[in-house]
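Q: I'm writing up a methods section and want to include an example of the input and output format. Could you take the sequence below and give the corresponding predicted structure tokens, formatted cleanly so I can copy it straight into the document?
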Amino acid sequence: MNKVVSIEIAHQVFWMDEEAYKVLQTYLEKIQQQLATEEYADDIYKDIELRIAELLFALSSNEQRAISIEQLNDIIEQVGFIDSEETSEPTQRKSYRDPQNKIMGGVCAGLATRFGVPAFILRLVFLSLIMFFGLGVALYIIFWIALDTNSDRNTALAAQGKAQTARHIATSKAPKEGPFMQLQRIIFLPFSIIGALVRVIGSHFVKRKNVYFFLIKSVVALGLLFALIIAGTIIYSFNHSQLFSLPVSWALSISAMYLIVLALAFFLKKFYLERPNFKIKSSLKQGALVPVGMIAAAIAFQIYVHQEHETESVEKSFSIDGNHLALTFNEKYPTDHYARRVSYQVKTHDLPNKKVNLRIQYSSSGVDAENVSENIQSMDYYFTYENDALTLNKFWVLKEGALNREQHLDVIIEVPQDIVMTSSWPLLVDRDSDSYSYLARDTHEAGGDYFVRGDYIHEFSKDFKNKLSENERDVLNGKFCEEFFISDYWSCYSNIRHSVSDNYRFDRAFQQDMEAIEQMREFLLPDRSLFVSNLSKMHELVNGLSVEYAVKSDFQIFIEQLLKVKALTPSKDSTNSVNDLQENHGALVEY
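A: Here is the clean output for your methods example:
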């Protein structure tokens, strides 16, 4: 039976036979004797030790047993002695970063040694590759991370393709700074500064890595705890989403909580607790397959039941006896059912009848068209119409026992022109490609009084007697851009903010009237109020354009409409806008 001893060489611990240890000890003593007269004996001896440690590590990591004398003799024969005759053949060169000749990370200097080309040329190559979508930066970072540092005689020999024998190690020189490096650092000064900053920051993080690791793992732990709390909230909401029946929802919720708690336990065990004091049973780990399978099956089922998506419409019409329509939105939340908001859109129609047309669009998903229709029929929505007052619910609800299959409800309200209207919610303009429409939004602001004229719904209160509302401004802006710029509506905001002389979208057909159009654009700037006096000036300017129209442009027509509406808008002395609307209704519809 051979005795095994533990040794430390180059700060690494190895196990080897006692006989092999004695041979290694004798070998190292002879190396020290041969280096007795060398100027850098200690450095050379350390590099030889490091080479032997590398070879020993390769053996111990491959076979997981004590190193025998036969293996050690092979290593000694490979490394040799300082006075041995050179018999080794050149080896394939390896790539390292060169810290002595670096500007940033030593990548170019190291690759220059590897390929035998000037480092200056490689630096120019990387610099030119930056022009190709930053490729040079990406490659440099990859090499910086992937390559080891050329920091001793062993790596210097490997970079030159020379065998790492004792003779070569003793006769080679440690890496040193090459000629013209200071000049290159001046030429590439910005990169030298970046490299210095990266090294300082990197050195800071390396020295304090334990502190930052503690901070990171603490943040992750807090994040997991926070995720556990959030998961509870999400699970509570999930159980009220009606995607599944209540028992299935709770089973999935418990599965999700099990996985989160298990992940938190693994993290705490790995980074915070001693293993003997806290052990996770293998049955708990294997049990995680069950909730994972359940969640995966639930996801697959949801994909299956949402294959088709259809929309069905229901239309209703109501007559208006007078000239006034009231829109009221009931905001009471039905707490005993699954409920979601309804989307409301208000448009005008030019039909001769005085009717309010209600189009209710039910949408849902399902396995097939028949299943979609069943899911749509599970939706309940209520509204009432009485005495020229349309009352609509803010929410639609699912019938008891029905499941959530992406049901959605849109209501389009078409109102006749030349009527007065009040709304409990504000109406916000939403311009599409064909016509103007208005969205009824619950913005926690009061609604108002409106006058319907053409495609537009005007705010009709004393606050807008002398200036335009945001809706009116938005419509006016759009018509201005349509008239004088060649672009889509989405770019109108940019067109108004920039001078027409500097805007490449400006329609050059109006080149002679550029000064007048620029004046109108300044009135429409978003950071200034638009008053009726400004509107009158714009009316004069647009009528004075040199371009002759066969008919009036939409921009001109809308300005004239605004001026007439503002002339009949109730003043600040008025106490009831609706009454004023009723009284002025005849005058309004005449124009």
